[in-house]
Amino acid sequence: MAYETVLYDVADGIATVTLNRPDKLNAWTRLMQGDVKDAMLRAAADESVRAIVLTGAGRGFCAGADMEVLTAASTGAGGPVSGAVPRPAVDPTAAVNARADFRMTHSYFPAIPKPIVAAVNGPCAGLGLVIALYCDMRFAGQSAMFTTSFAQRGLIAEHGLSWLLPKLIGVPHAADLLYSARKVRAPEALQLGLVQRLFPDQELLAQTRAYLKTIVEDVSPRSVAIMKRQIWEAQFQTLSEATVIANHEMEQSFGTADFKEGVAHFLEKRKARFTGR
């Protein structure tokens, strides 16, 4: 299936979703919103896919909402940027009973039962930053630049950013980035914890794929899917609640093919052959 605003590719168990409006620094539109969601759900439903990369074409990740859309909104001539374009897609997140928090406009990324890594190349601003932060991890090129930008447009912390950003970097740092809308270069982003890896620009995608290759080849996709759900849902749980859930999931794991394979490949000193079952 071809998309108008994103590229979709699967190789070696990794789906790559590329925002593809390079002439506009991949500025976000309603159509892109629909394309990205459909691509993510497609990757989630594909059993051959075990990890997902989200990146941008050209010299930027995503410059935020398209200024033409914002201009129309400021004059009352257009609807909100968040208006989604419906697409026919089966939502596999329903099968894992994703909580309502992870079924909103952009917050569905945590309900995708596969790891999502944002490979941030160049500018990552406004809504583009929101999208990157909903990924499980962020790897950045040396020239990457981050900014919330909302205060400079007379806007606010949208799509749950006021909940998400303080959890990732702490309240004072989140306040700094939101109130000032200042630009954060890649080295500072690494120091703050906005990103987890920093690579030369020309190596970013290859290094991101190399990291995900270890997840594809060496670990149980069932384990990863459940741990991803545990990590995100634990943000709403007490320690005792998280422990009870973990104990139940551990009991369930003992009866799976992946558990048996996990023990067997260790004892037999061979490469694992996990099936996700």
Automatic annotation (TrEMBL):
GO terms of molecular function: enoyl-CoA hydratase activity
Enzyme class, spelled out: lyase
InterPro entries found in the cross-reference section: ClpP/crotonase-like_dom_sf, ECH/Chromodomain_protein, Enoyl-CoA_hydra/iso
Keyword Lyase annotated: yes
Keyword Protein biosynthesis: no
EC number(s) from the headed UniProt entry: 4.2.1.17
Short name of any one Pfam family annotated for the protein: ECH_1
UniProt entry keywords in alphabetical sequence: Lyase
Family, per entry: Belongs to the enoyl-CoA hydratase/isomerase family.
PANTHER family tied to this protein: ENOYL-COA HYDRATASE_ISOMERASE FAMILY PROTEIN (AFU_ORTHOLOGUE AFUA_1G01890) (PTHR43684:SF4), PTHR43684
Protein name per UniProt: Enoyl-CoA hydratase
